[in-house]
Automatic annotation (TrEMBL):
<keyword id="KW-0479">Metal-binding</keyword>
<comment type="function">
    <text>Catalyzes the hydrolytic deamination of guanine, producing xanthine and ammonia.</text>
</comment>
<dbReference type="GO" id="GO:0005829">
    <property type="term" value="C:cytosol"/>
</dbReference>
<keyword id="KW-0862">Zinc</keyword>
<dbReference type="GO" id="GO:0008892">
    <property type="term" value="F:guanine deaminase activity"/>
</dbReference>
<dbReference type="GO" id="GO:0006147">
    <property type="term" value="P:guanine catabolic process"/>
</dbReference>
<dbReference type="InterPro" id="IPR032466">
    <property type="entry name" value="Metal_Hydrolase"/>
</dbReference>
<protein>
    <recommendedName>
        <fullName>Guanine deaminase</fullName>
        <ecNumber>3.5.4.3</ecNumber>
    </recommendedName>
</protein>
<keyword id="KW-0378">Hydrolase</keyword>
<dbReference type="GO" id="GO:0008270">
    <property type="term" value="F:zinc ion binding"/>
</dbReference>
<comment type="pathway">
    <text>Purine metabolism; guanine degradation; xanthine from guanine: step 1/1.</text>
</comment>
<feature type="domain" description="Amidohydrolase-related">
    <location>
        <begin position="71"/>
        <end position="442"/>
    </location>
</feature>
<dbReference type="Pfam" id="PF01979">
    <property type="entry name" value="Amidohydro_1"/>
</dbReference>
<dbReference type="InterPro" id="IPR011059">
    <property type="entry name" value="Metal-dep_hydrolase_composite"/>
</dbReference>
<dbReference type="InterPro" id="IPR006680">
    <property type="entry name" value="Amidohydro-rel"/>
</dbReference>
<dbReference type="InterPro" id="IPR014311">
    <property type="entry name" value="Guanine_deaminase"/>
</dbReference>
<comment type="similarity">
    <text>Belongs to the metallo-dependent hydrolases superfamily. ATZ/TRZ family.</text>
</comment>
Length: 445
């Protein structure tokens, strides 16, 4: 039997804030200890430091006392981001999805045939997402497997937690991005092998058919088989835009719905992440629930590309797993704080339109839960990250509402709950002083 390690490498003394249950933000004055493996060894009341010192081994332990303007929160989880699109953030957003893809996205992604170009962009994406507090990200890369390997090497080097997929496209795509079925499957297998060789507990592969419009049924079926063989994650897009939904019906006229296309290809599992899902019917949501897939809600992208307004409450009421994503570069920022704020705006828009007087738009507590533990559930990581619990890995942000050049005006007399609300609505990366992944402080510059 393995002996439990009781050595403490680092202790934080101060305010912890997390949202382990939907709709509730838990605030405590605590001491939190981390073990050499980066796991949370203990969480105890604030005044028990001396007692804890007698219980665990304190040797070269760093003890960090947080100031009254500081607190720890779980790291943010971006469940949907396109790493190669990062240079395009803020560009072409006057076009709808399918035109934007052709005019901006596909030409940029074609440049990732050059792994050296990929290295520069991917380095920027990882550094900037970390600096904005994204400790876990579920990444699309381009179709190019060598560039995808570079992405994995860089994530490993920076120490972010990540899922990485080689995007698969084999039809209705520009020649520069269309690959044969065989190339797509072999590339996906090569990426899986590369991640396995890296031997990182923070990195996982995710099979990535771009969406039903650019993947043949054969390609999607083959990826479904591969996913089931290795119990790998799957990510794709669904029902982001009305024209896209029409196009899916034109391409798959015998399928009952867009969701049925994926279901029949074996792509819906408890490790599947579906991005957007704005226009799913009740029947399609029934399939999502039955297959236990997760949904990545990307409001910044949905508003920027005028794709539609997603109803988070409708998903939560059905107990379908829901997380948040930036969807760079449909979304114009890597900031999950901005995604949380626009999650509230989307939900408020729905509340204006609905005929149901009992409809409750989401509040900041719920959005914070979705950006942390909600995202962890979507990615199957809820036992590891997303909240502060003994035994979980320490993926966390040290926030200071009074940091240098902070845009937050926080009166010292505010309660902790009010300081957190200030950070939620007015904060940015300048308030995130330190970022930890699996107990290790990562660089963000
Ligand atoms: Zn996307």
């Amino acid at each position: 039997m393995q002996q439990v390690c009781s050595r403490v490498t680092r202790v934080f003394v101060g305010t912890l804030i997390h949202a382990p249950c939907l709709g509730e933000v838990i605030i405590s004055q605590s001491i939190l200890g981390i073990d050499p493996q980066g796991k949370i060894l203990f969480i105890r009341p604030y005044n028990q430091l001396e007692a804890v010192k007698g219980e665990f081994e304190f040797k070269d332990t760093s003890i960090v006392q947080l100031s009254p303007s500081q607190f720890l929160i779980p790291g943010f989880i971006d469940t949907h981001i396109h790493a190669p699109q990062y240079p395009n953030t803020g560009l072409g957003l006057d076009k709808p999805l399918l035109e934007w893809l052709s005019a901006y996205t596909f030409p940029l992604e074609a440049r990732f045939s050059d792994p050296n170009y990929a290295r520069g962009v991917y380095n920027d994406v990882i550094r900037d997402t970390l600096r904005h507090g994204t400790t876990t990200a579920c990444y699309f890369t381009s179709v190019h497997v060598e560039a995808a390997k570079v992405m994995c090497d860089l994530i490993h080097k920076w120490g972010q937690r990540g899922l990485v997929g080689k995007t698969c496209m084999d039809c209705n795509s520009p020649p520069s991005l269309s690959q044969t079925l065989e190339t797509n499957i072999q590339g996906s297998k090569q990426l899986i092998a590369h991640i396995s060789q890296l031997g990182s507990s923070l990195l996982s592969p995710v099979l990535t058919p771009r969406f039903a419009l650019t993947c043949s049924e054969e390609c999607m079926r083959a990826l479904g088989v591969l996913a089931r063989e290795g119990h790998y994650h799957i990510q794709t897009h669904i029902s982001e835009n009305k024209r896209e939904v029409e196009r899916a019906h034109e391409l798959y006229p015998t399928a009952d719905s867009y969701t049925h296309v994926y279901q029949e290809c074996g792509l819906l599992t408890d490790k599947t992440i579906l991005a957007h899902a704005i226009y799913l019917t009740d029947q399609e949501l029934g399939i999502c629930k039955e297959e236990r897939v997760g949904i990545a809600h990307c409001p910044v992208s949905n508003f920027a590309l005028k794709s539609g307004v997603f109803d988070s409450r409708r998903i939560l009421e059905r107990d379908i797993k829901l997380g948040l994503g930036t969807d760079v570069s449909g979304g114009y920022t890597v900031s999950m704080l901005e995604v949380m704020r626009q999650t509230l705006i989307a939900s408020t828009c729905i509340s204006f339109q609905t005929q149901d007087p009992a409809y409750r738009p989401l509040d900041y507590r719920e959005a914070f839960h979705l950006a942390t533990l909600g995202g962890a559930r979507v990615l199957g990581l809820e036992d590891k990250v997303g909240s502060f619990e003994e035994g979980k890995e320490f993926d966390a942000l040290l926030v200071d509402v009074n940091s240098l050049r902070s845009q937050i005006r926080a009166d010292p007399g505010l309660s902790v709950s009010e300081k957190f609300q200030k950070f939620f609505f007015n904060g940015d990366d300048r308030n995130i002083l330190e970022v930890f992944v699996s107990g290790r402080r990562v660089e963000t510059q």
